[in-house]
Design brief:
Keywords: Membrane, Transmembrane, Transmembrane helix. The chain is mostly helical. The protein has twelve helices and three strands. α2 packs antiparallel against α5 and α9 runs antiparallel to α10. The chain starts with a helix and ends with a helix.
C-alpha cells in the first residue's frame, strides 16, 4: 500500500493542475466575535465599581478588575453564548485544514516545490524509525502509534464532505466509489466486532467515526444529486457553482482561457476529489452570458 501511495503522490504532483496553486485565504470573521464580546460587556462597566476596587486595591488596574468581575457575575449568560460561538468557530477553523481549497498554516501539503513533499516524507520516516528504535517493545507507544494512525485514517472522508459543501454538486462523482467506501466500513467494523477478540476500544470508535462521515457523504450525495436533477430540468435557477475556484472564474471573466476548457459551448471547472480524480463541473452559464451580452 505504501508503494502504491508513493506512486499516486508522484503522479499527482507531476500532473498537478495550475488552479491547485490558486488558494484562498479563509476568513473566519473572528473580528465580529471580538467586537460582539466588547459590545456586550463594556456597557456594564460602572464608575462606582471602579472606585470601589480602587479603594481596596490601589495598585491594580480598576477597569480590568471590574470588567472581569462583571463578565463573571453579571453577564455570564450572554458570555456563555459567545463562548459557545467561539468554540464552534474554533472547530470550523480546524475543519478547514482538511479543505485543500484554503491556505493552511505554513502551506502544509500545499507547497509549490514538489521536493518539499518528499523531504517531509523522508523526515517523517526517519523520525518514526528513531522513535521505533527507542521505544521498541513498549506497549504504550505501540498503542499510541496505532491509535493515532487509525484516527488519521478515519478522518479521510472530511475533504470529500467539505468539497460537496463548497461546490454543491455531485456531477461526475462515481456512485461505485461511495458504495466501495460504505462496503469497506462495514467490513472493517464487522472484523473489529466479530473477527477478533483482542481489539482496543479506540479502534472501534475510529471505525464508527469514519462510517458516520461516510454516511454524511451519502446524505450529501443524494441531496445534491436531487438538486442536479432539478437544475437539469430547469426547476432550479441556473447559477454559477458557489465558491468553485473563484480565482479561475475571475481570470475567465478577464479573458484568460487557459485554465477553463470550453466543451460543446459550455464551461467546465476542474475539482479534485478525495480519490485523487479530477472532476469537471459545468459552470452554469450566468457568467458567460454576462460577458457576451
Amino acid at each position: 500500500m505504501i508503494f502504491i501511495q508513493t506512486i499516486l503522490l508522484y503522479y499527482a504532483l507531476k500532473f498537478r493542475p495550475p488552479e491547485a496553486e490558486s488558494l484562498e485565504v479563509y476568513d473566519g470573521h473572528w473580528s465580529s466575535v471580538r467586537d460582539r464580546f466588547f459590545e456586550v460587556n463594556t456597557n456594564l462597566l460602572k464608575d462606582e465599581m471602579q472606585e470601589c476596587v480602587g479603594e481596596k486595591f490601589p495598585g491594580i488596574d480598576k477597569s480590568l478588575i471590574s470588567g472581569i468581575s462583571l463578565v463573571i457575575f453579571r453577564n455570564w449568560q450572554r458570555n456563555s453564548m459567545l463562548f459557545g460561538l467561539f468554540l464552534l468557530k474554533l472547530v470550523s477553523e480546524f475543519l478547514r485544514l482538511f479543505d485543500a481549497h484554503y491556505v493552511r498554516p505554513f502551506h502544509f501539503w500545499q507547497w509549490h516545490n514538489a521536493m518539499k513533499y518528499w523531504y517531509f516524507i523522508l523526515a517523517l520516516v526517519l523520525s518514526t524509525s528513531v522513535l521505533q528504535s527507542i521505544f521498541i517493545g513498549n506497549e504504550h507507544y505501540a498503542l499510541m502509534l496505532g491509535s493515532s494512525s487509525f484516527l488519521i485514517e478515519s478522518s479521510l472522508p472530511l475533504p470529500q464532505i467539505l468539497l460537496f459543501q463548497r461546490v454543491k454538486t455531485v456531477q461526475n462523482f462515481k456512485t461505485i466509489l461511495l458504495l466501495s467506501w460504505l462496503a469497506g466500513d462495514l467490513t472493517k467494523i464487522s472484523y473489529l466486532l466479530y473477527g477478533t477478540d483482542n481489539v482496543g476500544l479506540i479502534f472501534i470508535i475510529a471505525a464508527l467515526f469514519q462510517m458516520s462521515l461516510n454516511l454524511v457523504i451519502t446524505y450529501l450525495f443524494f441531496k445534491y444529486r436531487k438538486m442536479d436533477i432539478k437544475r437539469d430540468q430547469g426547476l432550479l435557477p441556473m447559477t454559477v457553482l458557489d465558491d468553485v475556484n473563484s480565482s479561475i472564474l475571475l481570470q475567465d471573466l478577464a479573458g484568460v482561457e487557459d485554465q477553463v476548457e470550453p466543451k460543446q459551448g459550455k464551461h467546465f471547472v476542474r475539482v479534485r476529489s478525495r480519490a485523487g480524480t479530477v472532476n469537471e463541473h459545468e459552470e452554469l452559464a450566468v457568467s458567460r452570458r454576462s460577458t457576451t451580452g
